Each structure stands twice: as structure tokens, then as C-alpha cells.
Amino acid sequence: MVNEAELLADEVGGSQLSLATIASRLGVQVPSLYKHVAGLPALRSLIEARAKAELAEVLGRSAVGVSADDAVDALAAAYRAWAKKHPGRYEFTLRAPDPDDAASLDASDRAVRVMYDALAGYGLTGDDAVDATRSFRAALHGFVALEAAGGFGLPRDVDRSFERLVGALKLSLTEWSRL
Q1: Rounded-to-integer distance, Cα 70 and Cα 64, Å
Q2: Which of 17, 126, 167, 174 is most enclosed, with most CB atoms within 10 A?
Q3: Considering only CA atoms, which of 43, 54, 3, 45 is closest in space to residue 19?
Q4: What is the mean pLDDT of residues 11-34?
Q5: CA-CA distances (angstroms) from residue 129 to 25, 73, 75, 117, 177?
Q6: Are 143 and 162 in contact (CB under 8 A)?
Q7: 60 φ, ψ to 5°?
Q8: Under CATH, domain 44-178 is a member of which superfamily?
Q9: What is the DSSP letter of 93?
């Protein structure tokens, strides 16, 4: 059932997900779903943890064996590709984890560790690594969200614009301590 809910979220958007739409898709009545999940909030928590874990895995695989600029290129490309492929699930990765949700906390921690490892190639640790990770994620999310919403109507190749954004991020990371 969770797999089907994830697919449905990608089709209709995570915010549009409801037990009624899932039940309809599965050809069952809503009460039947309660045998598998305690309700919509519990289902959303499951999707969130799984989406974060999958994204962390994708990011981790992309950055194996590379550091600094090569890692940023790999992470940015993997992040964008995963978000485009899984737009509904991507929505579930945006919130900070609930402190009581061990699965979401673990998955979020794994994704952050991948970033910290990549940023270590720039000599960034501690608060600088936190700030740089937030900036990196915010820039990528902004691009991905605008792209998904059809926000890039100017006559220029969007992939090139993305490459330029990532290039600007890499430049800023090399000068981070001077900011």
C-alpha cells in the first residue's frame, strides 16, 4: 500500500494525497487501509522516511569516490534528477524530521552526512558546514521547484542555467571562509 501511495504522490502531488484517493486506486474501501496504516498522518510519515532514505541513498551513491567540486557536481545532478523523477515524494523530503520519528531522523542524518563529507573537501566543518549545506540545498530546491512549476520561460537552455548555478555554488564554497 505504501508503494502505491508513493506512486500516487508522484502523480498527483504529495499535498493531494488522501486515503480516499489511495483506496480508490487500490479498489478498496478506506476502512480497509487501516489494517495497514494508522491513518493519513502515519502514512505521510512512512512516505517521508522512505523518500528521505531513498534520496540519501541516491546522493550517497553519486558522491562515492569524489570530493569538493566533483562531489558538488554529482550531488547537484543527483538531487535534481531524483526530484524530477519523484515530484510527489520530493515534497516529503523538505521538512525537517520530527524528533520523534526515528526513521525520518536517520534518513535525514544520512543525507546531511553526505553533504558534510562533500563539503569537507572545501575545508568546511562545524557551523560553516551547516550554513553551506543549507545554502546548497536552498539553491537546488529553488531551482528544482521553479523548474517543476514551469517557472523558466526565458529562451535559454535550462540545463545550462543549472550548470551555472552549480558553478556559482562551487565558487562560493571555495571562498566560504571569507564570507
Answers
A1: 10
A2: 17
A3: 43
A4: 94
A5: 43, 17, 15, 9, 10
A6: yes
A7: -60, -45
A8: Tetracycline Repressor, domain 2 (1.10.357.10)
A9: T
Q: In the structure, what pLDDT confidence band is assigned to residue 109 with cuts at 50, 70 and 90? A: very high
pLDDT of 174 reads: 95
Q: If you search the block for the grid coordinates 505504501, which residue do you land on? A: 2
Q: How would DSSP label each residue in 152-165?
A: --SSS-HHHHHHHH
Q: What grid cell was written down for 41?
A: 498522518
Spatial distance between the Cα atoms of 179 and 174, rounded to a whole number of angstroms: 10
Instruction: With CA atoms as reference, report the closest residue to 44 among 84, 97, 80.
Output: 97
pLDDT tens figures, 116-143: 999 999 999 999 999 999 999 999 999 9
Confidence tier at 177 by pLDDT (50, 70, 90)? confident
